[in-house]
Design brief:
By secondary structure, this protein is an alpha/beta fold. It is built from 15 helices and 20 strands.
């Protein structure tokens, strides 16, 4: 396979936020078009869809409940929230009848790794699409005809004759905005309309899972910082740290027990900025050893066909990618993202788990994307292991001050290292006991 200059993914343009963004589905329609029923059916088909509950100043209708159908608040409270910039968008549809989308609702859904669903009026739908652009897919739901729309509004039994006439007049104006939506779907048959919407939505909401393979021997802050960077750049919806029991290119003598490494990665992921989107996986512990990436990819792709898998790796590993088992099937079928190492990489000069000496910039296969502006840390798992062993030796010789210093350095490099934290706690207990014993013989 020919090496070439890789694609580079630099810093995003414009203003950015440390909080990761996600995807949105927007459904709008004139009253009586049946959009709410369609939305609820789609949410049953796609578990990652989560309804964003809008706020309104109108009174509840029928069996509507506060917090489930809408956040029902007074017009005065609505105006107060507007003044505090708590809404992404809002509209006064009729006098003192406000509707709006709370920022906190969207952010909470994204933090759970889900897709935010909006069932909003037409003007709100247009504004949300303008605000979120390519991150949103918008749908305009039509009734088959004005006559059918009237029949549905009358059959609903919640509006007076005057209110129905008002809604029909408003629907005529709203139909002029249909072209401002990504897709127009006619709800003439509920099953057919649901299937049409599902076919449009499926590729858009497929979860993007980035597999971060490694021995994590042990995990350290550099691993987590890269995973957080991926989430913040919206390159993936989830980063899964796949703990490899046995890398076919590495000796197993220096490896900590696989369960211990998994538990360390799990604890580090839980302590990250995005614990719902960065997680550890023990999948390779259940697969034949040694752990070949192609085997894991096949297993996961067959088990989870609705997910879109990509791969994250350091540039030292990517430099030798063409030598991996069935490399052509990996490179040809899965997006590969590479983060740079401090000092650069030279193919074939790996001098430790996660570190290497400087050299010429690595050449990567076609299709590999390099994550420019990814965080760089002058730390490696090898260095953490060496400090751990040094601390153990001091501890065995009862040199507790020196041992505490080494374990504290380990935690500075790898805050999630449970072993170092446990040793420090033990040393503190020993010293506290000795001091108490000396002061109170």
């Amino acid at each position: 396979m020919v090496s070439q200059a890789p694609q580079r993914l630099g810093a995003p343009s414009g203003n950015t936020s440390d909080r990761p963004s996600g995807k949105l589905l927007i459904f709008s329609a004139p009253s009586g078009s049946g959009k709410t029923t369609l939305v609820r059916r789609l949410m049953e088909r796609f578990p990652r869809l989560e309804f964003s509950v809008s706020a309104t100043s109108r009174a509840p209708r029928g069996q509507e409940q506060n917090g489930r159908d809408y956040h029902f608040i007074s017009a005065d409270e609505f105006r107060k929230l507007i003044a505090e910039d708590k809404f992404v968008e809002w509209e006064e549809v009729y006098e003192d009848k406000f509707y709006g989308t709370l920022r906190s609702q969207i952010e909470a859904i994204w933090e759970r790794g889900n897709v935010c669903v909006f069932d909003v009026d037409v003007e709100g739908g247009v504004r949300l699409k303008q605000i979120f652009g390519e991150g949103a897919m918008s749908f305009f739901i039509e009734a088959p005809s004005p006559e059918e729309l009237r029949r549905r509004l009358v059959g609903r039994g919640t509006d007076s004759p005057d209110s129905i006439e008002c809604r029909l007049a408003k629907a005529t104006a709203e139909m002029e905005r249909a072209r401002d939506f990504d897709h127009i779907v006619v709800n003439d048959d509920l099953e057919r309309a649901t299937d049409e919407l599902a076919a449009l939505i499926a590729p858009f909401v497929a979860q993007r899972v980035m597999l971060y393979f490694g021995s994590f021997n042990p995990v350290h802050r550099g691993h987590i910082a890269i995973a957080e960077h991926v989430i913040e750049r919206d390159i993936a919806d989830m980063v899964v740290m796949v703990v490899s029991p046995q890398n076919p290119f590495k000796q197993t003598g220096s490896l900590a027990p696989e369960l211990e490494r998994f538990e360390g990665a799990e604890a580090a992921a839980a302590a990250s900025k995005y614990p719902s989107q960065i997680q550890a996986s023990a999948v390779e512990m259940a697969l034949p050893k040694p752990s070949y990436t192609i085997n894991t990819l096949r297993f996961l792709t067959e088990r989870f066909p609705e997910k879109q898998f990509s791969i994250l790796m350091g540039e030292d590993n990517a430099a030798g990618l063409t030598g991996w088992r069935e490399a052509d099937k990996i490179i040809g079928h899965y997006p590969i993202y590479v983060y740079p190492r401090s000092g650069g990489a030279a193919p074939g000069r790996d001098v430790g788990d996660g570190s290497h000496e400087g050299g010429e910039p690595a050449k990567f296969p076609a299709g590999v994307t390099v994550l420019d502006n990814a965080p760089l840390f002058d730390v490696s798992s090898t260095a953490v292991r060496e400090l751990l062993e040094s601390g153990r030796n001091h501890h065995r010789a009862n040199r507790f001050g020196a041992a505490a210093n080494d374990f504290a350095r380990v935690l500075a490099l790898a805050p999630a290292n449970a072993e170092a934290a446990g040793y420090l706690e033990l040393i503190e207990e020993i010293l506290n006991y000795r001091n108490t014993d000396l002061l109170n013989p």
